[in-house]
Amino acid sequence: xxxxxxxxxxxxxxxxxxxxxxxxxxxxxxxxxxxxxxxxxxxxxxxxxxxxxxxxxxxxxxxxxxxxxxxxxxxxxxxxxxxxxxxxxxxxxxxxxxxxxxxxxxxxxxxxxxxxxxxxxxxxxxxxxxxxxxxxxxxxxxxxxxxxxxxxxxxxxxxxxxxxxxxxxxxxxxxxxxxxxxxxxxxxxxxxxxxxxxxxxxxxxxxxxxxxxxxxxxxxxxxxxxxxxxxxxxxxxxxxxxxxxxxxxxxxxxxxxxxxxxxxxxxxxxxxxxxxxxxxxxxxxxxxxxxxxxxxx
Length: 297
Hints:
Elements: H1 2-23, H2 40-49, H3 52-56, E1 74-77, E2 80-83, H4 100-109, H5 124-127, H6 132-142, E3 156-157, H7 166-174, H8 188-200, H9 204-207, E4 225-226, E5 233-234, H10 246-255, H11 266-275, H12 280-290
Antiparallel strand pairs: 1-2, 2-3, 4-5
Helix pairs in contact: 1-7, 2-6, 4-6, 8-12, 10-11, 10-12
């Protein structure tokens, strides 16, 4: 019995060590961002498509106030309350002291400059699809924004989700950089739309169902999901249910009006506002991609 006990203890130690090794916070190869020069003009497009202000500006901000990324907005979920951090260029309370590599680690791999896991409420499971140059451009733009000295408030998470170490296992299961819709047969405009929808726009974070661990069900990509903010459902936007023309989709993303003259509300109103800051060609690319995703009933 003593040998059995010692053997089980040894297996437990080996298993724990293996888990830590497999799920430790990953970092990008520094060569991936070495020498990149950020273009703030493209960075502004990245900023708006990525929805940065929707989460990180103060609640109910409008106009220029949306560029003050003070944080503090609260997101009540089944895992607890997530509080958006200050990501202004303030060097002490924000991310002004971050390098492009720091931001790339955060956005592409969910790893903080301190080497800890971020929670996937920060949608790095989608941002993993974006290009390092877009990260450099975003950093160049964000460095032009006003700083805020407001301290970031801690999350208020339920046990056991308050243990960040568990996020390593979540990433091992669900952080997948492979495109959801394959390249084959996609035009350049549709490929641009894929980059925007799967990556920067992180549309699947709301429009796709999740498994019990909170991972997106890639087999049901964009097929609709429960509304995390209350009753109702986030709609299926695959061609099985979204039967609008490409022009209808573009109009909705531009004005917020549906073909039946209903209007976007709640979080989708923020998306429409964000997309009003980007070139019309990007809204057209999103619509073109949505017509090509697999139809799921």
